[in-house]
Specification:
- The protein has a seven-stranded mixed beta sheet with strand order 1-2-3-7-6-5-4, with helices on both faces.
- It folds into two domains: about 190 residues, BirA Bifunctional Protein, domain 2, CATH 3.30.930; about 45 residues, Roll (SH3 type barrels), CATH 2.30.30.
- About 25% of the residues lie in helices and about 35% in strands.
- The protein contains five helices and twelve strands.
- Strand 8 and strand 9 form a beta hairpin.
- The chain is an alpha+beta fold and about 250 residues long.
- It is globular.
- Helix 2 crosses helix 5.
- It binds biotinyl-5-AMP.
């Protein structure tokens, strides 16, 4: 693609018409392909969300892709890569559509209160070393309808902006931004991207409920800390840092 200006992300690129899930193929080949390999499919028959949920991936209307990364970081830090990907998608949507989307921590991109993109980060690691990380990104680009159960919850860039764009352009912009923020994160740490994560968060300042490993937590999301954890203040005034979890935001 003439739009792609990266050094390594997307240089090796696999395109499929139909696949079960780009994250599944990514897992199968990750050990044998270069860092930055990208898999893109026109259609997924078993697109996956988190916690066994499914991701609707209709034919030809979205960006269904997985990026294989081999970062030299600690396994517990890999969770930050979801944030790196999320800000990259937000920046790309801004560049291509001139609209501001927001991040519902940790992995949803929201436009006009509806979900336009989801991110699924998976990893293979040993005790103190990562073998590979797979960042799965699903963006509803030109999709013009959703199944009944997603009505009011899901949307596409086309439905919100009324403009249809070449998916290649948005894909390239996501990958260009991803390489930039990924490099910045590796070189300078989470603190470098933290202000952007905070600025683009739709979660901070709102009443939320989190289903985390620690159990169910209700409170107000106050900030994202230097490690990328969401800081929640309970009504008893206790502050808790949550590394990962399933968040519902009141009013969303
Ligand atoms: C996610 O999970 O949001 C992660 C989605 C990742 C999808 C990409 S596509 C490329 C790669 N290959 C894969 O197989 N997956 C990745 P989660 O936070 O668990 O949200 C899942 C929920 O989002 C579902 O239970 C639905 O409620 C909703 N949903 C499903 N399909 C959607 C869609 N196309 N647009 C918006 N919302 C959707």
């Amino acid at each position: 693609s003439p739009y792609l200006t990266t050094d390594f992300i997307g240089k090796n690129y696999i395109h499929k018409l139909v696949i079960d899930s780009t994250n599944n193929l990514a897992k199968e080949i990750a050990s044998n392909v270069p860092d930055g390999t990208v898999i893109i499919a026109e259609e997924q028959t078993a697109g996956r969300g988190r916690l066994g949920r499914s991701w609707i991936s209709q034919k030809g209307c979205g960006i269904w892709m997985s990026i294989i990364l081999k970062p030299n970081i600690q396994p517990q830090e890999a969770i930050n890569l979801t944030q790196v990907a999320a800000i990259s998608v937000v920046k790309a949507i801004e560049e291509v559509f001139h609209v501001e989307s927001k991040i519902k921590w940790p992995n949803d991109i929201i436009l006009n209160n509806k979900k336009v993109c989801g991110i699924l980060t998976e990893m293979s690691s040993e005790i103190d070393k990562i073998n590979y990380v797979i960042i799965g990104i699903g963006v509803n680009v030109n999709c013009d309808n959703f199944p009944e159960e997603l009505k009011g919850k899901a949307t596409s860039l086309y439905l919100e902006t009324n403009s249809k764009v070449d998916r290649k352009k948005l894909t390239a912009s996501i990958l260009n931004n991803l390489e930039f923020y990924y490099n910045a994160y590796l070189q300078k740490g989470f603190v470098y991207i933290r202000p952007i994560c905070i600025e683009k968060s739709i979660t901070i300042g709102r009443q939320i409920k989190v289903i985390a490993n620690e159990g169910e937590i209700e409170g107000k999301a106050v900030t994202i800390d230097n490690n990328g954890s969401l800081v929640v203040e309970t009504k008893e005034g206790k502050r808790l840092s949550i590394m990962s979890g399933d968040v519902s935001v009141r009013g969303l």
